[in-house]
Amino acid sequence: MQLWLIPILPLAGFAINGLFGRRFSKSLVNVFAIGSVLLSFAWVVKTLAGLGDISGTHLEHYFTWIQSGALNIGCDFAIDRLTAVMLLVVTGVGSLIHIYAIGYMAHEGGYYRFFAYLNLFMFFMLVLVLGASYLVLFVGWEGVGLCSYLLIGFYFDKQFATNAGNKAFIVNRIGDFGFSLAMFLIFVNFKSLDFATVFQAAPGMSEATLTTIGLLLLVGACGKSAQLPLYVWLPDAMAGPTPVSALIHAATMVTAGVYMTARSWVIYTHAPVAMNVIAIMGVVTAFFAATIGLAQNDIKKVFAYSTVSQLGYMFIGVGSGAFGAGIFHVVTHAFFKALLFLGAGSVIHALAGEQDMRNMGGLRSKIPITFWTMMCAAVAISGVPPFSGFFSKDAILAAAYEKTPWIYWLGVFTAGLTAFYIFRAMFLTFFGNYRGKAHPHESPPVMWIPLAILALLSLGGGFIPVPEFLREVFHAPPEGPANYTLMGISVAAGLIGIFLAWLMYCFKPSMAESFAERVGIFYKLVYNKYFVDEIYGVAIVRPIVEGSRVLLWKVVDVSGIDGLANGIATWCRGVGGVLRRIQSGNIRSYATWVLFGSVMLIVAMGLAEGLAR
Amino acid sequence: MPLNQVPLSWFLILSAALFAIGVAGFLFRRNIITVFMSIELMLNAVNLSFIAFSYQNKQVNGHLLAFFVMVVAAAEAAVGLAIILTVFKNRATLNIDEMDSMKD
Questions:
Q1: A584 to chain B: which residues are within 8 Å by CB?
Q2: How far is A258 from A72, CA to CA, in rounded Å?
Q3: Is the Cβ pair B27, A587 closer than 8 Å?
Q4: A596 and A511 both lie in a single domain
Q5: Which residues contact B82 (CB under 8 A, 6 or more apart)?
Q6: A423 lies in a domain?
Q7: Which of A17, A159, A480, A551 is 20 to 30 A removed from A382 (C-alpha atoms)?
Q8: What is the ipTM of this complex?
Q9: If contacts are CB pairs under 8 Å, which of residues 46-75 in chain B contact chain A?
Q10: Whole-model pTM?
Q11: What would the pLDDT profile of A532-545 be if each residue is shown by its tens digit?
């Protein structure tokens, strides 16, 4: 089936643009960058068409990568229904975002570099999805982290961008540490890292082992998918160009953690404690991030916190045993969140770089296509039926209700918050009077055509029967009858959120401020993101930095290690200072020394002779 | 008194005395030529004791060593005098205490 062609094509695009792109014209860079991704998408479609209904797993072995004792790692790719869904999302949404980026990046420097990184990201993401063992998955996992770092810091001449890149990379290291430990533990217990072998043997393992592995994998997922307590890097990651935020930090890379936990469903179904931890972490993150999103003024920050919150929903699904629903939300979220980010990019593009919603307003008539497409995404994410977000969110919440009702209720409340902050952003941006100074202009077709396609997908994506399609992969029981009461409650929560947003930001704009004043402390807390960055700064970053500076640098390094080296050197110099007096240059003093030495030698020999006798 | 009746100790005392004079001359004289001559004196003092022992013990080793010393002394004289000549040409002095430029 030549699965290797899927990731190799973007890699070729990266190599060509990365090596020679500097000399290429922009249109030639486009040919390689967009062409490779489109070809990759076409190859995915062709492969899937060739496989028909894809029952079971199709594995391709290319070569033995590592062979050492019991460790035998092959470079294997495999495709099953889960991989198929992810492949379509990654290459499909990825292609649209690549096309959009032609327009968005048209006036930016480093054009070829941007597309080279973006293609490299596609390569690693496809390796991650296709890998048939934890280690191959991990290669992709680390690779997308690298590309994320490179693209967050794309504007490397800006201090905040490089800082954000570092932050993302370092926070992800914590997660990857957990992932590595999980892999070690898997290898020790299963003697293999291949998915097939591990999942075959997993049901026979002790629950304690599986729970430990599950929790450690969760630490990895937590870092990559920006969950509490490691979510802090994602809002800062918005320093990168907007297509990057859409592709990496909304649609694909951040869902890798969800994919990985869903892929490890056999381990989790036999480790109920780990499942509960996932669900609780998911709902707490969803709620926590949604509250922060209520008070942000940067349009991209709102969507960033929204992403963290929606990822929380996906983990609620996975943690409630509804793996199919979790992946369903990955798919629909890829559509509407990519659309929201690309729309935000279009707004920013129209306003020549303005990101603060307080300087927007009334853009509805000025950039109508952007407005209407973003509206599609907004209704989808708010869970308004019959649009995509409604179906996936409802599937997750229904599963949560069956397992733990309080998670359901908190999830419903969060759904209301979601609708509120998304429509707050919409109203602030597109309604009322224009408050800025720039002259808005609609984006070129190369930007709004991807928006339009994503809008159609956001509206109709809910009718793609993803959970049904994935039922076989997760051995899930057939779905019970729909619970219309639960559905009604979550829809009502979304509609109330939209209504309140309309009331406070459109109908009577002064209400928002008076309300914010009324709940002063809470507003301040939320506006400052619960001071999490500050708390981490005081509790973790400062101790490490100061500990390194004072203890490790000033004490251990300067007075310990340097002291030892310098001490030896000083001592040698002192001894040398004494000894160099012998070397006076005066021949007669040399002669005296020679004489003295000879006499001493003779005396010593005489003494030795005497003693021996 | 024939040579074979002269006791060994006499030769050794003479040798030691010559050597001591050589050492004293080497240490206390400042003229480089004199120092050079003192070295020759010491070498020959040692030669004397070699020959004396060799004669006493009826062995040829001492003679051999004496010849070696003489060869070395001849070579040393040739090189040494050449050096002294060059030093004098350059510095116009033969005072050994002024020749300390290798100090630093």
A1: 100, 103
A2: 27
A3: no
A4: no
A5: none
A6: yes
A7: A480
A8: 0.80
A9: none
A10: 0.79
A11: 888 888 888 888 88
